Amino acid sequence: MENEGATVVITHHVLDGKHQEYEDWLNEIGPICRNAIGHIDWQIIRPIPSLTYSYTVIIRFDTIENLKNWMESSDRKRLIEKIRPLLFKDDNYFIKSGLDFLFTPENDKTKIPLRWKQYLVTWSAIYPLSIIIPSILLPILRILNIPQIRLIDSLFTSGIIVLMMVYVVMPNYTRWIKKWLYK
């Protein structure tokens, strides 16, 4: 299981008027994190003005050990102390291996679902999206005069599918089937 990779999802609720300072802090911590051993990916989901308030930072590492080493590193601890006065709530994060973060139950005492259930749920959610999203998105891209290049189409399509999976489909879908999923 060590080779599956590991993901940390960090949520920071930044105080009003402190977003630029937080952005500057992200520019400081980002390169340090990206240079950590085993770093794979760094994504930031910024708040939507007047709608959401939290920054979500998703960081992936090649192993859970390398991820934990980063999370417990002196560099990160120093930078978290530096940003703490700008946060409404403390540094909040959870670590999962593989795609487990999509199946994190609301109740932390509930176990992560079995892998075969995760597979079936993910597949059953992605399949209809992989049919619906291109049929809606590709005509829009053509109207916007974006050239019909497979790589560009795939980039936009996969981005929308992942966005839908993480923010819309999986939170609702897993809630809807939780009795079966977490049994």
How are the SSEs placed, and which strands pair?
Layout: E1 6-13, H1 19-34, E2 39-45, E3 54-61, H2 64-71, H3 74-83, E4 92-97, H4 115-143, H5 150-176, H6 178-181
Antiparallel strand pairs: 1-3, 1-4, 2-3
Helix pairs in contact: 1-3, 4-5
Helical fraction? 40-55%
Please tell me what the overall shape is: globular
| CATH fold descriptor of the largest domain | Alpha-Beta Plaits
Largest sheet: 4 strands, antiparallel
CATH architecture of the largest domain: 2-Layer Sandwich
Question: What is the beta-strand fraction?
Answer: 15-25%
Helix/strand/pairing class, anyone? alpha+beta
The low-confidence parts are none
The number of distinct helices, counting runs of at least 4 residues, comes to: 6
How many distinct domains?
2
Number of strands: 4
Q: How do the SSEs run, as a string of H and E?
A: EHEEHHEHHH
Report the average pLDDT across residues: 84
Give the termini distance in whole angstroms: 22 Å
Radius of gyration: 18 Å
Indicate the CATH class of the largest domain.
Alpha Beta
Lateral arrangement of strands in the main beta sheet: 2-3-1-4
What does this structure look like?
Strands 2-3-1-4 form a four-stranded antiparallel sheet. By secondary structure, the chain is of the alpha+beta class. Strand 2 and strand 3 form a beta hairpin. It has two domains: 97 residues, Alpha-Beta Plaits (2-Layer Sandwich); 67 residues, no CATH class.
